Amino acid sequence: MSDSIIEVHDLHKTYREGLFARKQVNALRGVTLEVPRGCIFGLLGPNGAGKTTLIKVMLGLVKRSSGSGNLLGRPLGDRMGRMKVGYLPEHHRFPRHLTGNAAMVYYGGLSGLSRREVLHKRPELLERVGLSKWGQTPVHKYSKGMQQRLGIAQALLHNPELLILDEPTDGVDPVGRADVRKLLKELQQEGTTIFLNSHQLQEIELVCDQAAILAAGRVQKLGTIEEITKHPNARIEFVLQGSLDDMQYALNFAETEPWQTDGDHLARVIVSAEDQNELNRCVDALRQKNIDILEMRRLRTTLEDAFLNIVSAETVE
Ligand SMILES: Nc1ncnc2c1ncn2[C@@H]1O[C@H](COP(=O)(O)OP(=O)(O)OP(=O)(O)O)[C@@H](O)[C@H]1O
Fold first, then answer.
1. What ipTM does this complex have?
2. pTM for the complete prediction?
């Protein structure tokens, strides 16, 4: 049996609107991806990329136009599969008059839990999300970060195997974001798989093991964060000490970016080395000239760079 918790294959979704449904929006145009059990998976994409549509199709809240897939081993939209999912929708709003405690009972009821079951689980969950002292307070007095944490607590009420969070840190300040990250890591350690849809690239980079970049309804890139941020041409940064003339002589065969030097004995230079042989050749040439290699590191692009490259390429096409 596959150990993927989500598998979707060639998913398409076309919304039809307007008079006689003449206007069509192709929100998903052949999405294929797999999410391994136990990982924190990030879905990234610009506005309108199709992220929320993908989540809704996975949950069966929106009907797909074509394609197939399964969620927790059940066909997409199947009720049994959905029962093991905790979901925090984008822009969710709690009824303003409810207290935190009452909101938990209300949402627990929507997940099919009895009041007794909710009362049993509620103290532990509110404690986990740092809201144990706020249960009696009306939700409209909560900050945005507190509301999101309460949203996560309600999504956890029925011990889901998979937690799907649509923009969980939207509008949350840096301290609140760090709290959410810590909570997600703890949940992962306890065996929960987390599917996170976020605009916050740095959040994804800090918390996710794997990610997909979605643009214009298609997966443009999929893999571990390391794979996504790997630079196509390996760039190695050297910090060198010794005679500047000798350094430049030693590396004259290599492709380098402009040198930065202190004008005396120290230099920082970035070398493009296609493979390990070329890197070894640089190191050998430097050492033959008695140059000290103080630092050597492989440069990576940030997730933001990777994202912008992919998204701008998609816009140009
Ligand atoms: N119910 C709907 N009817 C018609 N078009 C829709 C509907 N829901 C979404 N769309 C369109 O489908 C496309 C994808 O929207 P979706 O909300 O899935 O994107 P998103 O990546 O989640 O965007 P955002 O980051 O802005 O929330 C957009 O062009 C959007 O306008």
1. 0.97
2. 0.80
